[in-house]
Amino acid sequence: MNIVVCVKYVPDATADRKFEDDNTVDRVGVDGLLSELDEYAVEQALQFREKREGEDITVTALTVGPEKAVDAVRKALQMGADSGVHVVDDAIAGSDYLGTSLVLAKAIEKIKADTGADLVMCGMASTDASGSVVPAMLAERLGLPQVTLASVVESQGDQVRIKRDNEGSTEVIGATLPIVLSVTDQSGEARYPSFKGIMAAKKKPLETWSLTDLGLDAEQVGLSVAYTQVEDTTARPPRTAGEVVTDEDGSGATALVEFLASKKFI
Amino acid sequence: MSEVLVVIDHAEGEVKKPTYELLTIARRLGAPSAVFFGSPDQGDAVAEKVKRYGAAKVYVIDDAPIKGFLVAPKAEALQQLVEQASSNGDLAAILLPSTFENKEVAARLAIKIGSGLITDAVDVSAGSDGSAVTTQSVFAGNYTVQAKVTTGTPIITVKPNSAAPEEAEGAGAVEAFAATISDAAKGAQVVATQPRQSTGRPELTEAAIVVSGGRGTGGNFEPVEGFADSLGAAVGASRAAVDSGWMPHAFQVGQTGKTVSPQLYVANGISGAIQHRAGMQTSKTIVAVNKDPEAPIFELVDFGVVGDLHTVLPAARQQITDRSAAH
Ligand SMILES: Cc1cc2nc3c(=O)[nH]c(=O)nc-3n(C[C@H](O)[C@H](O)[C@H](O)COP(=O)(O)OP(=O)(O)OC[C@H]3O[C@@H](n4cnc5c(N)ncnc54)[C@H](O)[C@@H]3O)c2cc1C
Ligand SMILES: Nc1ncnc2c1ncn2[C@@H]1O[C@H](COP(=O)(O)O)[C@@H](O)[C@H]1O
Predict the structure, then answer these.
(1) Between B108, B305, B320, which is nearest A140 by CB?
(2) Does residue B253 belong to the interface with chain A, where contact is any CB pair within 8 Å?
(3) pLDDT tens track for A198-250
(4) A194 CA from centroid of ligand 2 (Å)
(5) With 0-12 CB in 10 A as exposed, 13-18 as middle and 19+ as buried, what is B112?
(6) pLDDT digits (tens, 9 = 90+) for B6-55
(7) Are A103 and A211 in contact (CB under 8 A)?
(8) Which of B59, B156, B179 is closest to B110 using CA atoms?
């Protein structure tokens, strides 16, 4: 059995993220890394494999992104994934959800043709786009059920059960493999790569694919054919810091209440 | 006038406020048709409610055959509805309240009908040619982005509190829509649900006032909850408070929790990490109580108190109670 984990290379959230002149996300000028939320997906993929010791389960980390995006795959390999695939092509730049999900789906199909892929794992959202839609799009494109936002993942044979928080309840969802699964940051701390892991990662197979390798044309993806267009991006004016008072013998509460009253909240 | 589909957000026929916001927004683009996934018994009652906000039509899709199955059946039903609506006339947009479920429904629908998708809009308006232009707040609220769908029928998910609901009488004509759901769409199923106990406080994402607590509560949320109650507010929490097991995850505000955009947000014992900001930065007025004057949260506030939340909040609560007793 093969698990494909989709990992995205994103601009560091704690850095100064910005846009390019063509209103696409600056993915080169800002330091990037494996999306923290996808580390949870890698962790759950590894645990899935570890819990089912004795079975032949492999984990492939897959990313679609610019040159540097290979770092996301490398990190997944260091954490313990068995192999990696990086899809990179200038024509992909500026793709929206539909374009990105198309490339990912084609890559998954290619991996599936080689090794089988019964489980596609994703993070709950990318930390840059935060759409939480790519897993559902992959499921639609691959004709699979989707089981999303898991905080607990359990499996037996080809049955998968997850627990998740829904709007007003906690739910248990069941499905039969093959599926697309996404996990949240509630699913459990992701491991750090060990020294051994870092050394071992260097010898693991890592393939680089272009659009041609996936049987796709440049005209099918990228900014020029995106289904959506960003027309304008504006930096939010920094909030001008308001009044800050220091509490002394209850003065803070009085000032707070006066502020709230002046704004008609009480 | 072109038609705009608006998916109704409801719990057992109880229509939620974001639906009225969406109907208000939809009228900027065309004539709203509300889409009700639910029990046909409740169709008329729901129609009565949504017509007050301008729904010309109300499509009722019986959810009995698809209840408990995740996402895919709703996407199939919507695809069929979109096909019918497009063949009858011009379909300007499909609007859905931005919940996780709806975003996934929208995602599948976008692939099915080959349309562009925009998620988490905080505003939608008609551009110069009448088509939908969306506003989104991205990068933890540090950027505002204007976008539009260039291919297909725009599918847009809209966050709560994106517009003030405005009443406008619509015809509210009820139309049953019979969708055909494939077996393939029924691959993921809810096998158990445990409803969360209601706190009796307002819904976090819909509340006008949110009072949150973080690690600085030290696990004692009483001052936060008491203060919230004196303001009629919802209670929120930082991830640190959730990870410590002090509050359920449903209360988490931030990147991986809820995004809130209330009139007033009060952060107590919360440092103001970027991931927390992502969920509250667009609040109209921000107040913080924190004992560290250097806490980054103070960069955002309209008003701040450097002090211990365990003394400031109960005292403030007392004063608010005294005031309302005096009135
Ligand atoms: C991928 C990812 C996703 C994340 N998602 C979220 C998210 O959705 N939401 C979220 O909140 N965080 C999220 N985080 C975590 C975030 O980075 C911070 O760790 C978290 O917000 C810190 O919570 P805090 O402010 O309560 O705790 P701290 O940062 O520890 O701050 C506690 C504050 O309380 C103050 N304090 C202490 N005692 C008192 C007192 N008695 N009275 C008043 N003040 C006091 C301190 O001065 C301090 O400023 C995420 C992180 C990652 C990596
Ligand atoms: N370019 C990408 N490469 C690999 N995986 C991706 C990519 N974009 C999105 N994903 C996966 O889809 C999930 C949700 O992304 P999003 O819908 O953008 O929030 C992420 O957590 C990843 O697992």
Answers:
(1) B108
(2) no
(3) 999 999 999 999 999 999 999 889 888 888 999 999 998 877 779 999 999 99
(4) 25
(5) middle
(6) 999 999 999 999 999 999 999 999 999 999 999 999 999 999 999 999 99
(7) yes
(8) B156
| Smallest Cα distance from B196 to chain A, Å | 5
Burial class (CB in 10 A: 0-12, 13-18, 19+), A8: buried
State whether residue B257 is helix, strand or coil.
coil
The answer to whether the CB atoms of B315 and A244 lie below 8 A apart is: no
Reading the block at residue A166, the tokens are 């829904």
Q: How far is the CA of B103 from the centre of ligand 2 (A)?
A: 14
Q: Which amino acid is at B69?
A: F
- Residue A225 has a pLDDT of 82
> Does A231 reach chain B within 8 Å, measured CB to CB?
yes
Q: The tokens of B269 are what? A: 């014992």
Distance (Å, rounded) from C-alpha A168 to C-alpha A117?
Answer: 33
Say if residues A163 and A188 touch (Cβ distance below 8 Å): no
Question: Rounded CA gap, B213 and B227, in Å?
Answer: 11
Using the Cβ of B200 and the Cβ atoms of chain A, whether some distance falls under 8 Å is answered with no
Cβ contact (<8 Å) for B287 and A174?
A: no
> What ipTM does this complex have?
0.94
B303 CA → ligand 2 middle, Å: 38
d(CA A75, CA A95): 24
On whether any CB of chain A is under 8 Å from the CB of B290, the answer is no
For ligand 1, whether the C-beta of B213 sits within 6 Å is no
Tell me the two tokens of residue B167. 């009443």
Using a CB-CB distance cutoff of 8 angstroms, which residues of chain B are in contact with residue A263? 264, 285
Could A234 and B312 be called an inter-chain contact, meaning their C-beta atoms sit closer than 8 Å? no
Cα A38 to Cα A181: distance, rounded to the nearest angstrom? 12
pLDDT in tens, B58-75: 999 999 999 999 999 999
pTM recorded for the entire structure? 0.94
Residues B63, B43 contacting (CB under 8 angstroms) = no
For residues B312-320, average pLDDT? 98
Which ligand lies nearest the alpha carbon of A105?
Answer: 2
Judge: A98–B72 Cβ closer than 8 Å, yes or no. no
Nearest CA-CA partner of A148 in B177, B255, B99, B136: B99
Q: Which residue in this structure is represented by tokens 């005209």?
A: A219
DSSP state of B80: H
Residue B77, pLDDT score: 98
User: How many residues comprise chain B?
Assistant: 327
For residue B218, what is the DSSP state?
Answer: T
Q: What tokens does B298 get?
A: 């103070």
Phi–psi pair at A63, nearest 5 degrees = -135, 150
B104: its two tokens:
């996934």
Which ligand number lies closest to the CA of residue B246? 1
Query: Which of B231, B223, B228 minimizes the C-alpha distance to B211?
Result: B228
Residues of B with CB below 8 A from A15's CB? none
Edge-to-edge, what's the strand order for the sheet holding B173-176? A228-235, B143-149, B132-138, B117-126, B155-158, B91-97, B3-7, B31-38, B57-62, B173-176
